[in-house]
Amino acid sequence: MGQRTAADDITEAYCIERGYTVSEHEPDLGIGKRIEFKIESGDDGCLTEVKEFDLATAPMTDGKGRWCQKETLKPIRSQIHEGAHKLKKAKDLGLPLVVVLVDAQGAMERLLNPFQIGAGMKGDLEILIPERGPVVAPTLAAGRNGELRNDHPYLSAVTVLHRNWNWDKCLADTFVTHSPGATPLSPAFFSGPDDLVFDYTEGDEFGEYLLRARTES
C-alpha cells in the first residue's frame, strides 16, 4: 500500500464533512491496482484517485506575475493523466471514476481555477473572432492539447478540492466529462451547497461552460 499524503487527508476530510462513507485508504478492489478511495452515499458509489502537486515542479512566473499557459497547464494535465491511467484498471467495475486534484503544498496557488482546469481537460484556450460578418464579441474555444480530448474516455469527472477563504471548510469544483465511455457520476457526490459543478458537452462555447456552474443543495 502507498503512503498517505496530505491530499489524501484533505479528500477524506471533505468526504466526512459531506456525510459520505469512505473506505480505508487504497482498498483491495481485486483489480491489481490500489485506488485511493471508494466513497459511497446511499446506494451510489464512486472511485477516486487523489493527486497532489509538488512544489519542486510548480510553474514559475516571468517575474512580472504572469504565467505561460503551456507551463501552467503542464502539471495539471500530468496529474490528470497519472490519475486517469491508474483508474483505467477499475473501468470494468461499473463505478464512476474521478481524479481528485488537491494543492496541499500551495504549489499551484491561484492556478487551479475553472479556466485552467477546463483548458487542461479540453484544450488550450483560444479566442475566436469571426473574419467576416457583423462585429460580435470574441468567444473562448478549446483548442489543442486537452488531456481528455482523445484519451481516458472512461473518466467520469475531475474534481479540485480547496479550502474557502476562512479555511474552515473544504470545497469542491467538479468538471463532469459526460464521456459516453464513462459511468455517469451521481449528483450525490462533490456537489454540496457551496460546491460548483461544471457540465461540458461538445459544441458548448467554452466561456459559457465555465460560467454555467450550478450548485446542488
Description:
The chain is of the alpha/beta class and 217 residues long. It has helices at 6-17, 69-87, 114-122, 206-211; strands at residues 21-22, 37-41, 44-52, 97-102, 123-128, 139-145, 157-163, 170-176, 196-199. The strands form two sheets. It has a seven-stranded mixed β-sheet with strand order 1-2-3-4-7-8-9. A two-stranded antiparallel sheet has the order 5-6.
Concise synopsis of the structure shown:
The chain is α/β, with parallel strands linked by helices.
Strand order of the largest sheet: 1-2-3-4-7-8-9
Which regions contain 5 or more consecutive residues with pLDDT less than 50? 211-217
Count of distinct strands: 9
| Number of distinct helices | 4
What class do helices, strands and sheet pairing give?
alpha/beta
Oligomer designation:
single chain
β-strand amount:
15-25%
How far is the N terminus from the C terminus? 36 Å
Tell me the domain tally.
Answer: 1
Mean of residue pLDDT values: 79
- What overall form do the CA principal axes indicate? globular
Instruction: Return the string of H and E elements.
Output: HEEEHEHEEEEEH
Query: Tell me about the biggest sheet?
Result: 7 strands, mixed
Q: Rounded to an integer, what's the Rg over CA atoms? A: 17 Å
Helix content: 10-25%
